[in-house]
Each structure stands twice: as structure tokens, then as C-alpha cells.
């Protein structure tokens, strides 16, 4: 088999000096593995003549499917040729040395290298292969032909363009380990200037290119442009990147490596909470003594070379002033939300849906909206009751965890009690400041327990404020009727007249 392949290869090389080009096939993502950085023996480049070297490569099924002729290998620098031959073994005779490349996963990159040595590019741009982006409505447009106004409407690249971008990134990693500076700069120029870089492209550059770009940023203008492109894309899409689970895994994996871990941590802090960034980055945080005054604390901070910012170090007294705040815009870390949570419990703003249902989704802040069924909630879903949201007798305006505001029927909601059914004597929870300076509400007193006790089916069905719910809901929930005073407004029964005329039409 090997001798037949060698004889056929010799005949082919005798005619045109190389093998026929075949179409590239997409290989898995792990095809980005590069030639082995094994130590090259001094005799590799000395004992072999470039005019007699032919490289064969392919996949596992057909390892001799492609070849690079000697006239193409002559264009490679000596360092790149030595790296390729170090990862190959000789299968030819003494007069013509034929090398078989051992790593089958690099066949895609070697085929691209062959096309580059012959034509100067491996993906020649055509109208069908131009990188494209898409807007929010699903319309595709060519990236480098569009003006700035159209580019600002783009939300991502197409799947075909992203697949080609992944091949370019794998080729860049291959050229870095191949020690081929000319080809590396060519690939870097294509990545930076031809392809649109959105969230998923920025994540790929962080994962596969950043280490090499950081080390080579001072080698050439193209390498510097690659490094700046990665930094600009990360800063531009940092709000979307920090929500990706793959980014968090990359952060945990690279936190101990320099310098990627430091850079990721810095812009993660900037993206999550600009307000507390200085406090989290402080190398020597100020230790506050419990009995010291704020003036003494500021003096000690200045002596330590730190600037004490009360807004940064101390948690805000009321961090959630706007109740229409979405979960993505709430301050971080989570501990600063405890005062707002306690306040919501005290004011009975936390509601639980006792059964699934739907309501009207309110778009925008206008109350003049048309009825729809777009606001959906599930059983036992936690909702926020808005202060100014009561409509009429039956409807309430609530907000879910996704930031959607809806108008739903109030009888499907049960409030979360401030004591959460876990504290003794129905005392409400707090965040470190007990409510000892004001009397407790009668509904939490053990001397006067609430009339309505939590049911077994719905343990959160304790309704402490009856006045918040309408008459129809109180009747459905079997609340005890309130005592009324004064004249009854019910219709009195008809009384018979004292004298009835036997002839009503005679006077």
C-alpha cells in the first residue's frame, strides 16, 4: 500500500510537481491542535534537501489524501519546516524523502497552508463567502460593505460567518506554534479587519487567542492590532459576556494565570458594579473598629494611603429606590439587597401566585394599555406587588423576576408574611436592626393571633391586611365579615296594608 502510494505520487510529481487540490472539509473544534513542539535534532535540516522533500497528510481513514510538494515547501522559513518535519516520520526511499504527518487533526490547517503557499490565501473572498451580520429583525448584510449606521443595528454574526471565523482563529493558533511570522500577521489582519466581532466571537478570542496576542503584541503592527481588537471587543460586550456560563468557567480556570486572569477579573468587576469596583480592588482594605468615630476612621484611612469613600465601603440605606428595577440592573453583591428585601417583607410587597395564570403585559410606563394575555406566571412564582399598582377592586400590578410588569387578578396572589413562618411569636425578620423602637403590629402579637391561620395546601396564605383585598376575594377566602354599625341598607320586607279595598278601581 505504501509503495503503491509512493509510486503514484512520484508519477504525479513528475507531471506537475504536486498533487491535485481537493475540497476542504470541516473538522471538529479540537482541530486547533498545533504541531508538537518537540526538540528538533540538528541533523533534520542538514541531512534533508528541500528539493527532495514531500509532505503527505490527511485524516485517519486516508492519511495520504493530501500532499505538499517540494516546490511549495521551499517557500517556508527554515524554522517552520523544521517544526513540521519534527512532527512527521519518513516513509519514502533514499533518493526522495516522503514524510507522513502524524497529527491527523491538523490536516485542515495544513491544507490551508498549502493553498496559502500557492495562491496567497486559503479562503478567497467571494460574494457568497463574505462575512455577514444580522440585525434584530433577522436581515443579513455584508459587514465590510455596510456603513456605520447599518452596523450599529447589528446584533450578531450569521452562523456561516461565525464558522469561518472559528477556522481563522484555529489557523492563527497554528501559525503561532509553527513559528511562521508572515502567515501569522496575515491571519491577524484578516481577523481584525474582515469579520464582525460580537459576543460569541469575543469569547472565542479570549479563550484561544489572548495568551498568544499578549506575548506577541510588540512584534509587529498586526500583532498589536490583534491585541487591541481583543481588548476593545471585551470592553464593548462585557455586559453580555459576564452573563455567559462559559465566561465564568474561563474566569475560574485562568484566575491563577498571568495576565489573562487579572484582566478578566478587572473588567468583570467593572461590568458588574462600577460603584463598588474600588472597594473590591483595594489591596489593603480598611478595617473598621466598632467603637471608632467616622472622623477617626477617615484619619486612619489617610494614614494607610487609602481614600475612604462612604458610598463605596458602606452599603446604601435604601439601594432599591426604584421598584421597576430589573434583576440585571440591581446592585451587586447580593448582600446589599437585604435592606430592600426586609422592606418589601414589611410592606407586604412579596407575593406568591397560588396557581398558574395570565394577565395583561404592560409595555412601557403608560397606564393606557390594551388588554392582552402576554403576562404569564406559574404556580408558586414569587412576584413583587407595586405600591401604586392597585387597579379597581380585583386587579393588581406586579413585577416578575424577568423585569416584566403585568396586570393580574388579585385573588390569585398570597402575600409572603414578614415572619416567613420561621420566627417565634410571629416576629418579622430584619437585616441587623431589630424593630425594638416601635410596637409590633397586632397581627403578629401572641395575645391577639390572626383569625385566619395558614392552610396546609398553601402555607403562605396568611393574609395579615384584610383591607388590601376586595370584598369578593374575602368572600372566596372565607374571611370573617367585619362588624357594621348604623342603619342597614338592605331592603325591608313588604308589609301588608292595614286596609285593603275589595274594589281597587272604585273610589
UniProtKB/TrEMBL annotation:
In this chain, composition skew of type Polar residues spans 17-45
Q: Where is this region: Disordered?
A: 16-45, 307-328, 440-507
User: According to the UniProt entry, which residue ranges have a biased composition of type Basic and acidic residues?
Assistant: 454-480
- Basic residues bias (residue ranges): 484-494
What's this protein's name?
A: Uncharacterized protein
Origin organism is Saccharata proteae CBS 121410
Amino acid at each position: 500500500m505504501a509503495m503503491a502510494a509512493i509510486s503514484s505520487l512520484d508519477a504525479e510529481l513528475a507531471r506537475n510537481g504536486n498533487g491535485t487540490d481537493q475540497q476542504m472539509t470541516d473538522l471538529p473544534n479540537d482541530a486547533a491542535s498545533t504541531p508538537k513542539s518537540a526538540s528538533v535534532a540538528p541533523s533534520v535540516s542538514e541531512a534533508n534537501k528541500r528539493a527532495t522533500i514531500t509532505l503527505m497528510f490527511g485524516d485517519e481513514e486516508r492519511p495520504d489524501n493530501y500532499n505538499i510538494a517540494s516546490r511549495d515547501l521551499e517557500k517556508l522559513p527554515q524554522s517552520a519546516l523544521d517544526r513540521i518535519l519534527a512532527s512527521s516520520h519518513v516513509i519514502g526511499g533514499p533518493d526522495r524523502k516522503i514524510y507522513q504527518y502524524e497529527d491527523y487533526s491538523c490536516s485542515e490547517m495544513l491544507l490551508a497552508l498549502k493553498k496559502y503557499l500557492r495562491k496567497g490565501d486559503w479562503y478567497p473572498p467571494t460574494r457568497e463567502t463574505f462575512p455577514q451580520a444580522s440585525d434584530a429583525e433577522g436581515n443579513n448584510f455584508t459587514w465590510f460593505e455596510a456603513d456605520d449606521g447599518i452596523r450599529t443595528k447589528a446584533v450578531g454574526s450569521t452562523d456561516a460567518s461565525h464558522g469561518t471565523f472559528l477556522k481563522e482563529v484555529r489557523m492563527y493558533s497554528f501559525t503561532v506554534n509553527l513559528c511562521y511570522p508572515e502567515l501569522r500577521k496575515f491571519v491577524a489582519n484578516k481577523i481584525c479587519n474582515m469579520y464582525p466581532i460580537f459576543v460569541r466571537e469575543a469569547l472565542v478570542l479570549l479563550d484561544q487567542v489572548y495568551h498568544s496576542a499578549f506575548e506577541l503584541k510588540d512584534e509587529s503592527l498586526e500583532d498589536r492590532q490583534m491585541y487591541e481588537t481583543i481588548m476593545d471587543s471585551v470592553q464593548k460586550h462585557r455586559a453580555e459576556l459576564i452573563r455567559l456560563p462559559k465566561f465564568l468557567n474561563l474566569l475560574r480556570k485562568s484566575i491563577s494565570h498571568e495576565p489573562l486572569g487579572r484582566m478578566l477579573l478587572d473588567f468583570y468587576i467593572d461590568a458588574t458594579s462600577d460603584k463598588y469596583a474600588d472597594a473590591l480592588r483595594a489591596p489593603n482594605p480598611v478595617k473598621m473598629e466598632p467603637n471608632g468615630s467616622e472622623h477617626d476612621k477617615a484619619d486612619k484611612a489617610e494614614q494607610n494611603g487609602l481614600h475612604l469613600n462612604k458610598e463605596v465601603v458602606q452599603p446604601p440605606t435604601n439601594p432599591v429606590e426604584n421598584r421597576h428595577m430589573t434583576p440585571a440592573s440591581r446592585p451587586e453583591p447580593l448582600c446589599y439587597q437585604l435592606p430592600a428585601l426586609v422592606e418589601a417583607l414589611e410592606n407586604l410587597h412579596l407575593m406568591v401566585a397560588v396557581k398558574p395564570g395570565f394577565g395583561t403585559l404592560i409595555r412601557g410606563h403608560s397606564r393606557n394599555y390594551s388588554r392582552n394575555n402576554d403576562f404569564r406566571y406559574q404556580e408558586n412564582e414569587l412576584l413583587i406587588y407595586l405600591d401604586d399598582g392597585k387597579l379597581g377592586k380585583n386587579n393588581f400590578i406586579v413585577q416578575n423576576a424577568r423585569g416584566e410588569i403585568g396586570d393580574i387578578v388579585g385573588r390569585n396572589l398570597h402575600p409572603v408574611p414578614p415572619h416567613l413562618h420561621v420566627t417565634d411569636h410571629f416576629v418579622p425578620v430584619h437585616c441587623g436592626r431589630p424593630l425594638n423602637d416601635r410596637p409590633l403590629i397586632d397581627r403578629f402579637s401572641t395575645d391577639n393571633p390572626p383569625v385566619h391561620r395558614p392552610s396546609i395546601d398553601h402555607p403562605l396564605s396568611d393574609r395579615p391586611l384584610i383591607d388590601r383585598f376586595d370584598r369578593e376575594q374575602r368572600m372566596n377566602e372565607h374571611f370573617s365579615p367585619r362588624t357594621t354599625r348604623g342603619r342597614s341598607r338592605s331592603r325591608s320586607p313588604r308589609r301588608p296594608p292595614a286596609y285593603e279595598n275589595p274594589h281597587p278601581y272604585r273610589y
